[in-house]
Amino acid sequence: MDRLLLTEVAPRDGLQNQPTLVPTAGKLELIRRLAEAGLTRIEAASFASPKAVPQMADAEEIVAGTRSLPGVEVSALAMNGRGLDRALACGTPQIATVVAATEGMNRRNINMTLERATAAAEEVIGRALEAGIAVRAYVAVAFECPFEGPVEPAAVVRLAERFAAIGAGEVVIADTIGAAAPGQVSALLRALLPSLPAERIGMHFHDTRGFGIANAHAAIEAGIRRFDASAGGIGGCPFAPGAAGNLATEDVVLLAEKSGLATGVDLPTLIDAVDVAGRLLGRPLGGRAMPWLRRSHAQASGDPR
Amino acid sequence: MDRLLLTEVAPRDGLQNQPTLVPTAGKLELIRRLAEAGLTRIEAASFASPKAVPQMADAEEIVAGTRSLPGVEVSALAMNGRGLDRALACGTPQIATVVAATEGMNRRNINMTLERATAAAEEVIGRALEAGIAVRAYVAVAFECPFEGPVEPAAVVRLAERFAAIGAGEVVIADTIGAAAPGQVSALLRALLPSLPAERIGMHFHDTRGFGIANAHAAIEAGIRRFDASAGGIGGCPFAPGAAGNLATEDVVLLAEKSGLATGVDLPTLIDAVDVAGRLLGRPLGGRAMPWLRRSHAQASGDPR
Lengths: 305, 305
Hints:
Two copies of one chain form a homodimer. By secondary structure, chain A is of the alpha/beta class. Chain A contains twelve helices and ten strands. In chain A, helix 6 runs parallel beside helix 7 and helix 7 (about 155-165) packs across helix 8. Chain A has a single domain (about 5-300), classed as Aldolase class I (TIM Barrel). In chain A, helix 8 (about 180-190) links the parallel strand 8 and strand 9 (about 200-205). Chains A and B meet through helix 8, helix 9, helix 10 and helix 12 of A and helix 8, helix 9, helix 10 and helix 12 of B.
């Protein structure tokens, strides 16, 4: 059966901007529950500066605490050389690194030109590969930049080609601000697929405008099978009222089930994992399909909730 | 510019099951505001039995009150001969009528066989056309039936062909319980398009699982340009907690804008119309994109809300 390969990002991209500091034990419990649900690729931590991202200050402990999870590929974000040093020092099995596709975003975010940011990422990727660990390389703001507006597919293709050339196993195209519509997804993939086979491309969507599932479907139609998703849709900026987070894992799994694609994920167990995350953050969580999934799950189990 | 032709259904499908009885003046205000937003096809009322659907008891007054709206095609639902008599008696300009695609739904809902329900609808359609008014004929539960499960495309095609043969100008395929995924939409349209040109097909989606926009995009990709939508996503069963309603007009308009398709709808004016509906129902309304649309609208207008 044709299958989707999901990378669960709730423990990292989901949690990193949440105002409630989640204790290490809570994160490890969440990761364990996500693994139990059948998620075999989990982005678990970030080696960002603990001052800049206090939620991720326990990255070393998370990597140590997840080492014994059977059959799970754990990765962590390393945005620069210092982050990579920490990742390597504690034996992180896989890293992710990110470059934004526009001058404006790189200047505002890390005070670098696009070229300097790309060269720095190439160095991180090269060093990680030398150390024998796999790399997922992200192209951020691949559709629209908050400072420059719509992004030309050619700019994304150039960056993806450089990441692939240096040896990143997977290049992930990220709609960082959730601005893409399915037509843009199809257009970008038409531009990218001649340079990079579908097996090396992942997609990372945010669901800001409610187009996440439509975008995922457009990517599936183009042959993409690797997707990031965040259990409960956790992510985004919790301070912006009504801001939606990452594309929810449960929504993607439901889309896959409806599309005849396997994911290996058990939805009832995933809903329980989302509830663990909800208790950690002190608020109800769930993607677009969650109200229906909860009703349907409750009916199936005879649970009257 | 290629365009989508939207039929706004909030005043009928949206309101009909709402527990708050909306006064006739409130409905007419909502319809006027929807027309101001640029919606030129509005399903305004239903000639259902006032006992069965008290919210629609004022159908004659709604038809009378909307007669002077410039450039707006007003339609009303007439499910049977008695409804049609009422529609014709008060000069309704256009009707919609509905048959469910399955035996189970027809038996449970109107205690008829599928064949008898179809024949009854053919009589309604025939009489309406003789009276010189246009008909939109709906195929309900076209993807999944709550009593029979998944529906074969062939069953939908047979019904659509009969509606088209008797002269219904538009056949609308309705995902009544919001169960379709985009792959099913594509498959059904592949089966239907050899029998009926895209210009005579409309799609009516509910957003129960958050797949509404993905389904609309799949239909657009198949060449469909006629869509029902409900301002604010009003609709569905308000008693089921978390049940989502109809596909929201604002979501479809945003998809169209992102897809280079015109709709004639002005989003800020539509948001104001949704707020009118929200005041009538006493609760905040809005489709999946609404939180983002409100922020974006507030920023553009300098409105600090």
